[in-house]
Automatic annotation (TrEMBL):
A Pfam entry, by short name: Sulfotransfer_1
GO molecular function: sulfotransferase activity
Originating organism: Psophocarpus tetragonolobus (Winged bean)
Keyword set, alphabetical order: Transferase
Similarity-based family: Belongs to the sulfotransferase 1 family.
Domain Sulfotransferase, residue spans: 32-291
Keyword field contains Transferase: yes
Name used for this protein in its record: Sulfotransferase
Signal peptide extent: none
InterPro entries for this protein: P-loop_NTPase, Sulfotransferase_dom
Amino acid sequence: KAPYFYFFQNFWCPSISLQGVHNFQKYFQAKDNDVFVASFPKSGTTWLKALTFAIINCQHFESLVNHPLLTSNPHELVPFLEFSLVGDVDEKIVKLSHMTEPRNFATHLPFPSLPTSIKESNIRIIYICRNPFDTFVSGWHFFSIFMSESSHKITIEEAFERFCNGVIGFGPWWSHVLGYWKESITRPNKVLFLKYEDLKEDISFHVKRIADFLGCPFIEEEKGMMESIIKLCSFDKMKDLEVNKFGHHLKIIENKHFFRKGEIGDWVNHFSPSMIEKLSKIIEEKLSGSGLSFKTQSSS
Ligand code: A3P
């Protein structure tokens, strides 16, 4: 089926997550030590989920030999609550309440639409975003896979128009990013705001930042552990694992589709000069005065 969206609470909610969003907002109760990974789709969520999960659980898996990330996709280990809270919600909510703490969840919901217990508590949120050019291209490839089987195929030009109009799952992109950006400025202990490009350029620095933010900093003796986590979560390692080559997520998505190129700047292979001009103007206008900017090319 082609994805379609409802404009709901000021964002474009994919029809497949409408029920899940409702249940998440209504029934989820945050615990103070919960850790959330939040993102706009195709911004590096899979990578951040793996890193966060590995950091939180590093005491339990010192050798990394039997690490859950070797046999489970990060989306299984760190579920999106707006996608999982469907079906028998009562049973699922009870299961969530008995999970080992700290619980680690993910969401694509914009900040204002998070359940009140998340917004008003001190739980920590790690947000990842990515320059809109690469985010669009990554999304285009990902969603083309689903659309290729539907009668609603759209061209990259049509998808681009929709992106520029904000009409994309959980979009507009700029509202999503700015919502978390503003929150990270006013409540830096609650929201850690990361950029995909920065992680690509200095992963050690950012893994330390994440661990510090979560209150479990790596001490000198744990440097080796930190390096192993970085390797385990790297694009090449994750992409090559059996579970990510052949497994499925939520029975509908092949895990391999979460690992494509993993680069900064692939958008140059897809954008025409007029597309560059159009999106640059929109982004400049939408982000103006926010202090937020993005790298669109790798510096190496
Ligand atoms: P590309 O499509 O540009 O390759 P998300 O996880 O939010 O769906 O984002 C997917 C993007 O992150 C894809 O980008 C994917 O290749 C990239 N990605 C996935 N795992 C990664 C990792 N371990 N390191 C770096 N990039 C990764």
